[in-house]
Amino acid sequence: MEKTELFQSNNTGYLYAVLHIESGYYCMIANGEKESIRLPSPLDPSVHDMAHFRDLPLLFERIREAHAGVEFVPFSVRRKDDSQSPMYVERLKRIDDHHVLLQAILIRKAPVKLAPASPQSAWSSPFFEHMEEAGVLLCTNGEVMKINSAFTKEYGWTEEDLVGGILPYVPDDLREEFELTRARLLAGEKKINLDTVRLKKDGTRVPVSIRAYPVFDSDGRLAGTTAMLISKESAAATQSLIQLQERIIKDRDQLIVDIMENTDLGVGQYDYIRNRFIYLSPAIRGLFEVELNEIYVNAFAFQKYVHPDDREKMADVLCNPDSNGEMDFRVIVPGKGLKWLRTKSVPIYDDEGRIVRLIGFTQDITRQKFSEEISLKWEKLGMVGHLAAGIAHEVRNPLTAVKGFMQLLDETGSAGDYAEIIMDQLERIELIVNELLMLAEPHEEDEMRPADLEKVLSEVVPLLKAEARMHNSTIRFKIQGGPLPAVCKTDEIKHVIINLVKNSLEAMPDGGTINISAWTNDGGPVIEVRDEGIGIPEERLTRLGEPFYSNKEKGTGMGLMKSFKIMERHGGTIEFESEIGKGTTARIRFPIDSETTIS
Q1: Which of 37, 149, 277, 506 has its CA 20 to 30 A from that of 568?
Q2: Beta strand 144-147 with 583-589: parallel, antiparallel or unpaired?
Q3: CB–CB of 583/535 below 8 Å?
Q4: Burial of residue 350 (number of CB atoms within 10 Å: 0-12, 13-18, 19+)
Q5: Torsion angle defined by CA atoms of residues 52, 53, 56 and 58, in that order, rounded to the nearest 10 degrees
Q6: pLDDT per position as a tens digit, 563-597
Q7: Per-residue model confidence as pLDDT tens digits over 386-400
Q8: How far apart are CA 206 and CA 232, in angstroms?
């Protein structure tokens, strides 16, 4: 394509050119050739040869801004020969990394059609008068038509000083810049942004940012120009204050976020206007074992693992925030067991007293609940112990008398063939009474002695294996090498082990394997009894050992209660783990005693 002058329009009246953003080389294209654009080369003309040298900085500035994606503002460019018509650039579009497409039109082939001169009082605008920026309105000949009160406040001049005259606030060294800016507006440019300097009435130079626009009358004729001026000093002070406020707000918000993001207290905020959660702290995920995105999508997703008996109460708190704002509830996660949570809700009201949001604070109170239940359990055991002691003493006194007289009858030979049977039953009753007394405080004559738990287990396991064969089950016994020292009453420990093994046998109606193992760790000796039985539901595990609570149809719970009492006196514990259909593990823990020696 032949070289074409930048200011020569094509058959549509528009100018189209491809420009190189660094060098200014360009090639013109006809309207029909836009689909096959040719890129310019050094053999093509340059805008330096065609455009007015005073307009070149603006031209290249707008080219670079458009290429970088900045919002484009139309502008005008004069020819090198200032007497010829300028062009008005309507569009600059990025083509690639080095080129833009220019679309323009010649904006004047004849003098600008100006509106007839009108007196200053004919123009009025409440917006112009009351806006915070200093504003000035000029006639097309450059005379001041009007200024606003902000201009007077900022620069000191009044309307009486300026109206009808030429603005005296332009420094002499910037007069040419002022006239060039005004000429660009008169040439048709829609908006000019300019950073420059202006004078106050007292002669003080003030750095300002100016936004200038053309003003048209109702017939579309150019009636004048207007400019709004912002002092860079006041703008900088305002911007500094804004930045300081933003930094304070950001620091405060970051502090709140840091607290919320790193505390184990779960915080959630529910919006009743949008009917969804608008904030959930990371701790919520660990408390409810539910991903936060699930709850954001579905407000009730957090109830996935909440105990069925507690869900209705939780829904009532969320749907009726005026109800009791604090509740304890259970969460059961498959494979992780049961935990207790406590949520306290605080409603947020608007100016009309309506609840618009609800903030909930949730914490894990499993340990607290466990401690409360343990305390209650031991309290019950203590009550049963005192009751058992009273009953035992009441029964033991007449029992002793009956036993003594039976012995006398037997010595005289008058008891007949039933003496032995009666004595056996009386001894059995005495044994039961002694076991009742065991629930109370230990007897003074019962002393704990150093013992080897390996030996205790070796004595009791053979007896239990025989019992297991009767239930079509087997017992496997595994112990670490070497002794397992502990201070205990061996008969009572045997009783605990026998009770746990019998419970395991009854939990395997179809038979199975019971594994008994023992070892020592940093906390002291441990004995473990593990079965393959039907398992115990999670909610029942915490109640094991309570008086009169049993998983057996006709059980009284006295066996486990007695075992718990024995281990309490030994300073140890009994722990249970269970999974439905896979079995139960009972773990007996003894306290560590560095002075233990086996006799």
Answers
A1: 506
A2: unpaired
A3: yes
A4: exposed
A5: -90
A6: 888 888 888 889 889 888 889 999 999 987 644 44
A7: 566 656 666 666 666
A8: 8
